[in-house]
Amino acid sequence: MSRYAERTGPIRLGMVGGGQGALIGGVHRIASRLDDNYRLVAGALSSTEEKSRASAEEIGLSPDRTYSDYVEMAKREARLKDGIEAVAIVTPNHLHLPVAREFLKRGIHVICDKPLTGKLADAKKLKAAVERSDARFILTHNYTGYPMVREARTRVARGDLGEIRVIQVEYAQDWLAEEPDPGNKQAAWRTDPEQSGAGGATGDIGTHAWNLTRFVTGLAPEALAADLQSFVPGRALDDNAHVMLRFQGGARGTLWCSQVAAGEENALTLRVYGTKGGLEWRQENPNELRVTPMGGATRIVTRALAETDDGSRRLTRIPPGHPEGFLEAFANIYGEAAQAIRAARTGAELPEGVIFPTIEDGVEGVAFVDACVRSSARNAAWVTF
Questions:
Q1: Is 341 exposed, middle or buried (0-12, 13-18, 19+ CB in 10 A)?
Q2: 207-219 burial: b if 16+ Cβ within 10 Å, else e
Q3: Predicted local confidence at residue 375, as pLDDT
Q4: Percent helix, strand, coil in the chain (nearest 5)?
Q5: Is 131 within 8 Å of 105 (Cβ atoms)?
Q6: Could you give the maximum distance between any two Cα atoms of the chain, in Å?
Q7: pLDDT digits over 293-348, tens only?
Q8: 52 — phi, psi (to 5°)?
Q9: 11-17 β-sheet, strand order
Q10: For residue 6, what pLDDT band results from cuts at 50, 70 and 90?
């Protein structure tokens, strides 16, 4: 039974990273608050004491629950009677392993930003740490929180598309199409192999595209062949990738991810084609799912319609015609995590239908990046992972 079994009410949340100038930290904080499931009470928001305290003051954290060192935070919070139940890790990739390990070994649940780690060896070490702990581990592949992504998953699983033949997924952006300003913190660590890991675009957004493919189709990978490029002169990591995919059972796929695609903002798109029909979902218009039966007309199925599955309607907050988007989808992952954490308070089973990305999804995502890098180094040879 969890050491927090006696607790009721909002989950006490801590955060490591996400201080001033960090976009994703703010997103996590909004997502955690949206459904009143959490209360942020502690944080090590930056590696320097001055910036950590300034960041904490901005968001209203108490000075006595503000830390400049995540190890100190983990130790002290684990001792406090009102210490945190869960921690959100929103640091650059290379810190995910050491930070998560400190909290996991003290029984504190971890909600970690993606990708899991920068290196496959670290991903495997983190998986071992999760397996040794009685704490939950949730990875924020937030696109799996969109209701119409859940609807697509349901339709594939119940056989609406028949046997899956072809998958096309792409994630295109243009924000790294040129050498970024030296003061751009987000670009700096994402293009640094020491902080980002082996993959650039493949790690940052390619893992999202890969995870979305696996989540919706359920198809297991067999092999891939990847052609990675670094178009911006002097860039150490890939900023564009074309990947061919082979799945067990015979399905084939292509994955394109790019951060140098001029004119694209956040164009994540998934298309799945089977023997009975196809479907398409676009993140920039997330409340719609395009469904086409073989030989029939394309229908646009919108979020929260009566014909949609209970699993997708469960994640909607407002009636059809009132758009829900990125922040709501992110909050859905936090909501699923909250249900898992509350179940852990009493040792109860995970509520039926609750789905969130796990440590296994995280390891597979890093294995995908590792395979892409290995394949590209061998002139896009087919490799397994």
A1: buried
A2: bbbbbbbbbbbeb
A3: 98
A4: 40, 20, 40
A5: no
A6: 65
A7: 999 999 999 999 999 999 999 999 999 999 999 999 999 999 999 999 999 998 99
A8: -65, -45
A9: 38-44, 11-17, 86-90, 109-112, 137-139
A10: low
pLDDT at 115: 98
Shortest CA distance to 122 belongs to which of 194, 17, 201?
A: 194
Tokens encoding 222? 């067999």
8 A C-beta contact, residue 241 and residue 201 = yes
Burial classification of residue 238, based on how many CB atoms lie within 10 Å of its CB (0-12 exposed, 13-18 middle, 19 or more buried):
buried
User: pLDDT tens for residues 100-124?
Assistant: 999 999 999 999 999 999 999 999 9
Edge to edge, the sheet with strand 288-293 lists 221-229, 240-247, 252-258, 164-172, 267-274, 277-282, 288-293, 299-302
- Whole-number Å distance between alpha carbons of 213 and 18: 28
CA distances from 67 to 23, 32, 39 (A): 20, 20, 17
Q: Which sign, positive or negative, has the C-alpha torsion 141, 191, 122, 32?
A: negative
State the residue for tokens 């949340």: 13
Q: Distances in Å between the alpha carbon of 350 and those of 4, 42, 48, 172, 344?
A: 16, 26, 38, 35, 8
CA dihedral 304, 307, 310, 312 (to 10 degrees): -50
Flag whether pLDDT at 199 surpasses 80.
yes
Beta strand 299-302 with 288-293 is: antiparallel
Render pLDDT for 237-283 as a digit per residue (tens, 0 to 9): 999 999 999 999 999 999 999 999 999 999 999 999 999 999 999 99
CA 158 vs. chain centroid, Å, equals 25
Question: Is residue 319 reached through a cis peptide bond, with omega within 30 degrees of 0 on the bond before it?
Answer: no
